[in-house]
Amino acid sequence: MVRGICAAFLRTSILLLLGATPVFGKYNKRDTWERNAVIGCAFQLSSKVPWDYQNDACTEFYCSVCSYDAAFGSLAVCVYDSLNSMGNNEGNKTFDKSWVHVQNMCIKFNGDFGNLSLDYYHEQLDLSYTIVRQNYSLENSPKVDFPVELNPEITLNLVNAYHKYFHNMDDSNFFVYFYYIYLFLIFFLASIGNYLTHINKELSIRKYTQWYRMQAYFTKCLWKGYHTSYYNFMGKFFIGLFPSKLETSIVTNYAVLNGILLAICYKYDSTNSLFSSKPQQVLRLLADRSGILAFGNLPIIFLFGTRNNILMWLTGFSLSTFIALHKWIGRIMIINSLIHSVSYLAYSILTGSFDFWNMELYYKCGIAAIFLLIIMFFLSLGYMRNHYYEIFLYTHIALAIGFMMACWKHVENLGWKNWLIISVSLWIFERFARIVCLLLNGGPLSSRLQLFENHQNTDDILIRVTIKKGNTTMTPKPGQFFFVYFMHPMIFWQSHPFTVIEEGDGDSIIIVLKPKHGASRVLYNSLVKAGGTLDMKLALEGPYGHSAPIKHADHVVLLAAGTGIPGPLYHAMSASLPLSDSPTNSIDLNIIVRNINILNAFRKELFYLHDRNVNIKIFLTRYKANKRANSIATERSSLVSKHFDIDQLKSLAKVYFTRPDLRSILKENIEPHMKTAIVTCGAPEFVDSLRDIISTEISSNPSSLIDYYEEFQRW
Prior knowledge:
Oligomer: single chain
Largest sheet: 7 strands, antiparallel
Number of strands: 15
Number of helices: 24
């Protein structure tokens, strides 16, 4: 029910994006001969003819042309002659179309144009044609109070210059669609692959392709085994996450496409009628192209930064993948924006028009927008996300709002507001879908928090949250996660993602979290004060993510480390069967933890797997060191719930007191001509090392079908 209604909002958002794009794109077409003729003629008549007209109430550029009869008559004659000279006025059809552009230009200076008709335009043409002064010299001319004819050659050159200028602008508008076409192809192919995986049809494709080579390439980490682990670039402050090879491939091709679109198909005016020199033309056209392309990226960036993204469901890509695309495409947009700003700055300096204090509002808003964008970039670097996530999140939203407002004022009278409208609409729909998900999950739900604490090692502290499902709460699937809002006075507005486990009776949902900083530390302090158990209201938003289709595999290998146990453990609970049913499929659950204390939070779920077709292996990497420490009494021993002892654990699983050889575990479970599903979750270093190992195994076993599913997400 929740997924169905939320998906309806998501599809509406996508339709809004895809449906509005061609409509607004058509609206923004600028290169028409009638428009070029009107602007070319109006520009000359306003800048070169000393009209005998003065109006203190109207001092803007086109005031005389739109308000003075002699000037307006000259405009009608100029447009008519220019269109006829170019052979673009068969049956006066193009001249009649030019009336719309005359009205749009003049109505802001002369409100009467809203009530005038095309007949008035023709009347002024006929009247002025009989009295127009041909070949009238404007040099040393006194004030002009009669219609004049402009130099035909100069006029045609200027009209043609506007044609090339606006043609470049239309090309820029059209090129934005290539972003969407490229991403559509990527997601279309990914959706087909995801669908075939879920219906167990990959083998039919593999007969004709090197599918395993593609899998191995996309699975491997991009650089030195780093993907979910932060990498230091230049000291502790400059840290970041490397994209996966799949993400890198998508972003690299996107960046190449962006570079091509910035570089191709410019038309230059050899006469320099509109600009004083070729460098000015180049700067202005590049500024326009880069600015339009930057705006075209905005809906993509907004969509990829949302939790409610239907593309996740279609493609099987994780939220962290879309966040990575959000970040990198955002950086490409910043580069385009910087090119736009620097090009316009250089153009303003060359033309002598750069004077900040006398600039128009749209120019100042453009400067404000680029500064906000740069600040947003630095405050979203890995250091801020990793150490001060809440500060990053709220400043990111505030700066994004300020940036969009500045952009709106920047282009308010120029066009391209469509990209802003689409982006904001997506943001509103997504936030509305979140609220709907919260309400359909039952709103505030009852929960019980339990503290599992090892006083000799604070790294082993865990909080188990048992959530009583509401009547309409969505039943999650293994590997899915909720964003949880704890109704605590200090953190009720915050939401954090947690992988969930549904209890065997289906009445409750379990999450297990490790206290670190921020919200989880607040919960820990409250639990200590309450004696280790605390009832609290919370709300669930979700579920998000997809569930790995492991049911089609001949063999399932689940690898979990530390607090990454919930996802693989829930997969084991969901996919396993009682031994009495003689299942043909086998499931291997490998759990790697420092010591036995961490398993206490999952005691009930581990006992659920007893006498089921799950081979459980538990690796205790520091058990001996903690065995002596645990014998020491602690002053808060009452906080610790029932503990596993080693004998109980051995009755459930094979227990090893060492670090596992991950490569050996995988080799033992991969067999020729068999389909193996591997699901992993754990610390970043653990997941990254498995990525590279599994990539190698996929390459080394072309006769086996190996599906790799990574449930650890980081952004």
